[in-house]
């Protein structure tokens, strides 16, 4: 009698499990889902097409498709992130919550890559016969190293070897002096500078170019609360905290031109982008292969900037001092660094501004800087 009862319970458990799996599969296949995941900043896998007898990849495509449509997937990812954080591990989506912020993992690479990049930058500047600087900020994790546990601190300390070739180069701009509070110069939910961090970079650039910096109060400031950055999206953690984007642009009339889009604007800050999943795109309307900023009232000449997204919050500040800024992002620009220099025309100064990871590991920068 007991055996039959136990068997009935086992049978019921198996049937319930099969029903739940079937329901989950039907939900994943038939229930409408968005094509884009706001929390992860990526497009979800599309439904597999007609099975191919030669590629033999339909099973993987179906697995990826179903995994992107598991019921309550954001909750499952968040739960996993919380557990991993409690165990001191990197989250599933590649971020580390620590010391009141969500950090990108430590940058890995070879110091020789940094040396090679400096040689490429110097060769271009020599060909143009103009003064130049390179600006690579210490990462948020590195600045926070003394507030981290021993395991994380040891991993971020490996970045010191990558900075060694930079700090011994006469063209390097050191942005953050000793004693800088990392939480004031970086967002908690994003890997980019706050306005305070960008302003410190602005002061360093003005010193190098022998220009008189403006006070922050001399710029037009705007605030956009509720900002959730890319490190938040990669963590998988629930968005408990958010940041406030504080943006600055010159009070003088400016012109932003996007040659590749044949578009022109009379502003550098785009408030409507603050409401999108990529709030950082309030600066310059996002990333572009090449852009030009003109300010007829500025005292300086033409600055050519080779950059990644770190420069987007800095360029509006520099626009108060340079009458013309041409900025090039190798990730989106089809040509080489030399092509961009030719397209920019006569310039008075070069600035290379990259995050440490872009400088060391971005293949587009490595390839295009050499031509």
Report what the structure shows:
The chain is α/β, with parallel strands linked by helices and 371 residues long. It folds into two domains: 2-72, no CATH class; 101-369, no CATH class. It is built from 14 helices and 13 strands. The chain has helices at 2-30, 58-67, 73-86, 111-128, 140-143, 150-157, 160-167, 182-185, 195-208, 230-235, 315-318, 337-344, 356-361, 363-369; strands at 36-37, 42-43, 96-98, 101-103, 132-135, 220-227, 243-249, 255-258, 263-265, 290-294, 300-307, 322-329, 349-353. The chain has a seven-stranded mixed beta sheet, sandwiched between helices. Helix 4 (111-128) packs parallel to helix 7 (160-167). It is globular, with a radius of gyration of 25 Å.
How many domain regions? 2
* Proportion in β-strands: 15-25%
Mean pLDDT: 85
Number of strands: 13
Feature tags:
371 residues, 13 strands, seven-stranded mixed β-sheet, globular, alpha/beta
What is this structure's SSE topology?
Blueprint (H helix, E strand, L loop, with lengths): L1 H29 L5 E2 L4 E2 L14 H10 L5 H14 L9 E3 L2 E3 L7 H18 L3 E4 L4 H4 L6 H8 L2 H8 L14 H4 L9 H14 L11 E8 L2 H6 L7 E7 L5 E4 L4 E3 L24 E5 L5 E8 L7 H4 L3 E8 L7 H8 L4 E5 L2 H6 L1 H7 L2
Helix pairs in contact: 4-7
Compact overview of the structure:
The protein is of the alpha/beta class and 371 residues long.
């Amino acid at each position: 009698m007991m055996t039959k009862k136990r068997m009935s319970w086992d049978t019921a458990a198996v049937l319930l499990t099969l029903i739940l799996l079937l329901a989950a599969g039907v939900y994943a296949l038939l229930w409408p889902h968005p094509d884009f995941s706001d929390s992860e900043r990526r497009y979800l896998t599309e439904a597999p097409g007609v099975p191919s007898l030669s590629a033999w990849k339909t099973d993987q495509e179906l697995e990826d498709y179903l995994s992107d449509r598991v019921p309550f997937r954001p909750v499952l990812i968040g739960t996993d992130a919380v557990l991993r954080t409690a165990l001191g591990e990197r989250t599933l989506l590649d971020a580390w919550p620590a010391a009141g912020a969500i950090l990108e993992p430590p940058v890995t690479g070879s110091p020789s890559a940094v040396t090679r990049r400096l040689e490429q930058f110097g060769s271009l500047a020599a060909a143009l016969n103009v003064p130049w600087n390179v600006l690579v900020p210490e990462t948020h994790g590195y600045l926070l190293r003394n507030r981290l546990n021993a395991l994380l601190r040891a991993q971020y300390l490996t970045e010191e070897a990558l900075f060694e070739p930079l700090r011994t180069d006469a063209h390097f701009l050191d942005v953050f002096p000793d004693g800088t509070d990392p939480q004031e110069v970086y967002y908690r939910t994003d890997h980019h500078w706050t306005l305070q961090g960008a302003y410190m970079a602005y002061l360093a650039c003005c010193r190098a170019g022998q220009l008189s910096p403006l006070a922050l109060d001399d710029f037009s400031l705007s605030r956009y609360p509720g900002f959730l950055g890319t490190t938040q999206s990669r963590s998988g953690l629930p968005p408990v905290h958010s940041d406030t984007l504080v943006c600055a642009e010159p009070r003088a009339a400016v012109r932003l031109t996007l040659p590749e889009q044949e578009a022109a604007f009379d502003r550098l800050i785009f408030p409507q982008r603050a409401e999108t999943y990529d709030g950082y795109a309030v600066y310059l309307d996002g990333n572009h292969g090449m852009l030009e900023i003109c300010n007829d009232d500025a005292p300086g000449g033409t600055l050519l900037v080779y950059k990644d997204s770190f420069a987007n919050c800095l360029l509006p500040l520099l626009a108060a001092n340079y009458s013309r800024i041409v900025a090039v992002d190798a990730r989106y620009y089809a040509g080489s660094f030399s092509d961009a220099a030719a397209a920019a025309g006569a310039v008075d100064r070069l600035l290379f501004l990259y995050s440490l990871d872009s400088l060391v590991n971005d293949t587009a920068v490595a390839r295009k800087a050499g031509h």
